[in-house]
Design goal:
By secondary structure, the chain is of the alpha/beta class. Helices cover about 20% and strands about 25% of the residues. The protein has six helices and 18 strands. The structure holds flavin-adenine dinucleotide (FAD). Flavin-adenine dinucleotide binds next to helix 5.
Length: about 290
């Protein structure tokens, strides 16, 4: 089997889907899931006894017969500062990303973290901020050697500071940040600061799907392997988000799970129709569609 990179696989799959021209929606998050009471639905109850409403963060609403959740590791979110004062300062004086460097002009900024982002932003902000202090729990970094060397050179030139230690407390004055307490190996050091940029990397969270009232285990959705249906009727899960004994997180497994889930989902969408199983290799209509797309 020749090698195939992830993007190539995605491109080839999109190419294969194209002749079927089903609608796709990108860059939005499935947020809500609710049952639609049968009496509220336009379609006669005997044909479609069970409908679901999926809503997205852009306000779209999908009235569907079944849902297949393939949310993988979930949505990525920044690893947050685990201090009681942090939540109230978030997005005002505590930042998990730098979106506008002008916001830090003339400010005393602490950049916490030891990866490429922390080093890159500490170096970049030193030209506009009043003072930048890079804070990391150890001397070593998980970042490009060139950036580490550039940071040490900037510290030696007096352009910024580097402190080895961990955030111990955030000091506030009213609703603004006044400074941070840093726990070093032997002491606690207080540093005045106006803005804190914490770049500790990303963690995956199940996101809104965790609120869908599905049986979950260790952040994943429990499925019955007969059809990869979850604990709620007509809601299926496939891929890395699906949990069952001996599950292997492989692309191959996701394809198999999705195929079986969609066979059952078809019955929910078309309870009056029989499912006909065909292969692309010997079904003339399907072959024609894929060949002449
Ligand atoms: C480093 C690495 C190498 C790997 N190499 C291989 C390999 O060689 N072969 C192999 O078979 N497998 C490999 N795997 C495993 C493989 O990548 C996974 O099994 C596969 O990507 C799982 O696909 P998925 O669709 O379930 O999840 P994902 O690929 O994680 O995709 C889930 C998608 O859902 C989106 N999402 C999450 N929540 C929502 C929401 N609420 N609304 C809308 N979208 C949402 C996410 O943003 C994401 O785009 C590798 C994994 C890693 C980490």
């Amino acid at each position: 089997m020749p090698g195939c990179l992830a993007q190539d696989l995605v491109d080839r799959l999109l190419e294969q889907c194209a002749p079927f021209a089903f609608p796709m929606h990108f860059n939005e998050r499935a947020n809500g899931l609710a049952e639609i009471p049968a009496e509220a639905h336009a379609i006669a109850q005997h044909e479609h006894p069970h409908r679901l409403l999926v809503t997205t963060d852009t306000g779209k609403r999908f009235d569907v017969a079944a849902v297949l959740v393939c949310s993988g590791a979930g949505a990525f979110a920044p690893q947050r500062v685990a201090l009681p004062e942090a939540a109230a300062l978030e997005d005002r004086h505590l930042h998990y990303a730098v979106r506008d460097t002008a916001r830090f002009a003339g400010k005393r900024v602490v950049v916490a973290g030891g990866g490429d982002s922390a080093l890159d932003w500490a170096l970049a902000l030193r030209t506009t901020a009043a003072r930048v202090t890079l804070l990391h729990r150890r001397e070593g970094f998980r970042a490009a050697d060139g950036s580490v060397a550039e940071m040490h050179a900037a510290v030696a030139a007096g352009e910024m500071d580097f402190v080895v230690g961990m955030l111990g407390a955030l000091k506030t004055e009213g609703d603004t940040l006044a400074g941070v307490d840093i726990r070093t190996r032997d002491d606690v050091v207080s540093l005045p600061a106006d803005e804190l940029v914490a770049l500790y990397g990303l963690v995956s969270e199940p996101g809104p799907i965790a609120q869908w009232d599905l049986d979950m285990r260790a952040g994943r959705i429990v499925v019955d392997t007969t059809a990869y249906e979850t604990s709620r009727r007509a809601i299926f899960a496939a891929g890395d988000i699906a949990f069952y004994p001996n599950k292997q997180k492989l692309i191959l497994s996701g394809f198999h799970e999705a195929a079986l889930a969609l066979r059952r989902a078809y019955h929910y969408a078309h309870p009056e129709k029989a499912l006909v199983h065909v292969h692309t290799s010997n079904n003339a209509t399907l072959k024609e569609k894929l060949t002449h797309a």
